[in-house]
Model the fold of this input.
Amino acid sequence: MPGTSPTAPHVLLVDDDAAVAKALAAVLVRAGYSVSVAGSAREAELLLDQRFDALVLDLRMPEMRGDALYYLASARQPWLAERTLFVTGDITEQAEEIIAQTGCELLHKPFRGDMLLQRVLRMAPLASRIVDRAC
Done:
């Protein structure tokens, strides 16, 4: 996305709700991340030729569940196995179990932008934030 540094960590954001995806991407871009947005798991699959530093994805999407995309993405980019955040409005026990099997973090929708940013910063720190902490 325009306005980010060429060395900014690249985040793949996958959510079938366009308004949610736009809002989440805005939070990350404002913080300094480069963000690619996919409106479906299939669209995200096509983007996996690019290198991503973190993956933020919805669990419940048409065509393919988020956990299936997680396994596919982490097979192609193994570091994503530990750099994935699930976001979902699904509060069922089954959803919790599915995500727990991946070992990834989970944010239940709705959530504040700072909660998203805090978790993404842990997975893919921004260079400027590292420098700020070192001073």
User: Anything to note?
Assistant: The chain has six helices and five strands. The mean pLDDT is 89. The helical segments are 18-31, 41-47, 66-76, 93-102, 113-123, 127-134.
